[in-house]
Design brief:
- By secondary structure, the chain is mainly beta.
- The chain has two domains: about 140 residues, 7 Propeller (Methylamine Dehydrogenase, Chain H); about 130 residues, YVTN repeat-like/Quinoprotein amine dehydrogenase (Methylamine Dehydrogenase, Chain H).
- It is about 5% helix and about 55% strand.
- The chain is built from one helix and 31 strands.
- The strands form eight sheets. It has a five-stranded mixed beta sheet. Strands 2-31-30-29 form a four-stranded antiparallel beta sheet, with no helix packed on it. Strands 3-4-5-6 form a four-stranded antiparallel beta sheet, with no helix packed on it.
- It is globular.
- The chain starts with a helix and ends with a strand.
Length: about 325
């Protein structure tokens, strides 16, 4: 009887989930590789076509585009650099790209139209993701599951820490940029004190394989796993749970309150929205055409999503 009511309750909750179509779309010149909602309430999109595009989130008008120099491919031909990661703090922009040389990275900052290169292939740094911590420091996630805090003025690292032995996947900062959660192929998440460069907690037990993406909001972490598990952790207690998907879960996002979580958890590239407390499905966002790279909650009812194509989707949930 208990099993019957559990199945019935799950069925009712699934039926109650609203189906949502995109409210708007933004077409970028290239494939979207990274996306950031800035403090200035703009959307910053990194492309594989050698540039970053910035859009107003009120009217979706393009307000800025930053391009970086082309790089040589393995055949020696010049081609646009693939921008892996981007960010903005005030009037300074961050652009991390591949260099076409041995898997090493190029790192640039742009301010008032002036592009300055911070790292080049000569530095032999294999960096996958970068984010501003403050106007002069950038947090770096390395391919080999390492974290470093780089001073962009001195071009020196404040610390460089090995987190594990697996390949790095993703990191996400909390709202105050005091802690970051790092994901890797092992499924274990490392919570790092950003200023001190110390691991303060390990979150584990919910994902048993590669974690593709993480988010960190209001003391909660969500993790998108290759094992078809969308994991949720309370960072303070370390306790976790997961929501089962039916396909690799490539992307995730938490709402600002962390009362809602988004997971891309089926082969149709649909985005499922859940209540993080009850695990009930609230909505299914349909219309994404390719494998998802990034999902971002603007607030509790508005989201942006980017996949491995040139279309950014804008979504609105019922209140």
């Amino acid at each position: 009887m208990i099993r019957y009511w559990t199945i019935l309750l799950f069925t009712v909750m699934t039926w109650a989930a609203q189906t949502v179509s995109p409210q708007h779309s933004i077409i970028v010149d290239g494939l979207a590789k990274d996306m950031v909602l800035t403090a200035e309430n703009t959307l910053l999109i990194a492309t594989d076509n050698g540039h970053v595009e910035e859009y107003n989130t009120s009217n979706y008008a393009k307000v800025k585009q930053i391009s970086i120099p082309k790089v040589k491919d393995f055949m020696g031909d010049m081609m646009p650099a693939r921008i892996l990661s981007t960010d903005r703090m005030g009037d300074t922009y961050l652009l991390l790209s591949d260099s076409g040389k041995g898997g090493y990275s190029n790192l640039f900052v742009e301010r008032k139209g002036k592009l300055t290169q911070i790292l080049s292939p000569d530095d032999k740094e294999a960096i996958i993701k970068a984010r501003f911590i403050d106007p002069t420091h950038i947090l770096l996630g390395y391919l080999g599951d390492e974290v470093a805090l780089l001073n962009i003025d001195s071009k020196k690292e404040r610390y460089h820490l090995q987190l594990g032995e697996s390949k790095f996947s993703d990191f996400a900062l909390n709202e105050k940029k005091t802690e970051a959660v790092f994901a890797c192929e092992s499924g274990i998440l490392s919570v790092v004190d950003v200023k001190r460069g110390k691991i303060v907690k390990r979150l584990q037990g919910q994902n048993l394989d590669n974690v593709y993406k993480v988010d960190f909001k209001n003391g909660m972490v969500s993790a998108a796993g290759k094992d078809r598990r969308g994991a949720l952790y309370d960072v303070k207690t370390g306790e976790g749970s997961y929501i089962e998907g039916n396909f690799f879960i490539y992307a995730t996002a938490l709402s600002p309150s962390a009362r809602k979580v988004a997971f891309a958890m089926d082969e149709n590239n649909d985005i499922s929205i859940f209540n993080t407390l009850t695990k009930s499905k609230l909505a299914v966002l349909k219309g994404q055409k390719s494998t998802l790279n990034v999902i971002i909650f603007k607030d509790e009812t508005h989201l942006f999503s980017a996949s491995d194509d040139n279309t950014i989707m804008v979504w609105e949930l019922n209140k």
